[in-house]
Amino acid sequence: MKVMSFNILADRRTWNNRRNGIVDIILDLDADVVGIQEALDTQRAYLENALVNDYTLIEFNISGNYDNPILLRNNRFTILDQGNAIGSICNGFDRYITWLLLLDSVTEEEFYFYNNHYCISPMRNKETHAINLAELIDQHQLVSNRTAIAVGDLNARRNTSVMRYLLNQVPINGIPNPVNLDDTWQIANPNVNRPPTTERGASIDWVLTLSGTNVTDASVGDSNGYSDHFPVTATFDL
Questions:
Q1: Quick check: 111 and 100 in contact, CB under 8 A?
Q2: Low-confidence ranges of the chain (pLDDT < 70)
Q3: What is the pTM of this model?
Q4: Comparing C-alpha atoms, which of 34, 82, 73, 36 is closest to residue 52?
């Protein structure tokens, strides 16, 4: 089962020139679940129509331009539960964690999928989002012990307090991380440095999962200029 995180760049002015390329990237990488970031209302509408034969676009009716939608491969998943939670405040607007509890008809396994877009600054806002994500995952694990996959543009490099909290359980302001998360890239490519996930050379887009989850592959693709972020994928044997 393959998942992807892809920030498609919220820019209405250039969207008409980029949209077919974005669709082609999604189809070529052929993920089963895709967390999308920076999808404005017009962009979401286009993706929904252009991908209708392959994917269903799940929206969360969040106020504002962004919605953190999730694409699901048609006829493979049953949505058992879904929701959203505030991650942080970013420039006066809420940033949300959108999530689904899914039943995979191929593997007959259930799993949680979380989609995120952290604020670019300041760091304390990103730290708040990371804490809220970890606590949400923990809440779900206490109720339903299932595989959890968290994706998104976290706007955080590996050596930041945000990623040390998420991946090394280093507390933030004395607040512990209640869940053990791993970077899927590191699991699948243990001896290879994590490549950049943006055109400017930063590695800030992630696919994380609970420790002990079987990850068979992880990759960082190329957006070919259609977005300033690259698509990030991971494949799981659930």
A1: no
A2: 63-65
A3: 0.97
A4: 73
- What's the pLDDT score for residue 47? 97
**Phi, psi angles (nearest 5°) of residue 32:** -90, -30
pLDDT of residue 12: 85
User: Tell me, what's the pLDDT at 65?
Assistant: 60
Helix (H, G, I), strand (E, B) or coil at 69: coil
As a whole-number percent, the residues of the chain with pLDDT over 90 amount to 91
User: Closest by alpha carbon to 148, among 190, 118, 115, 177?
Assistant: 115
Identify the structural domains of the chain with CATH numbers, from first to last.
2-236 (3.60.10.10)
Tell me the CB-side half-sphere exposure of residue 78, using CA atoms within 13 A. 8
* H helical segments located in the chain: 12-29, 41-50, 123-143, 161-168, 184-188
Q: In what order do the strands lie in the sheet with 70-73?
A: 55-58, 70-73, 33-37, 2-7, 232-236, 215-220
Give the whole-angstrom CA distance, residue 188 versus residue 7.
22
The encoded tokens of residue 220 equal 């960082």
Which tokens go with 157?
A: 């490099």
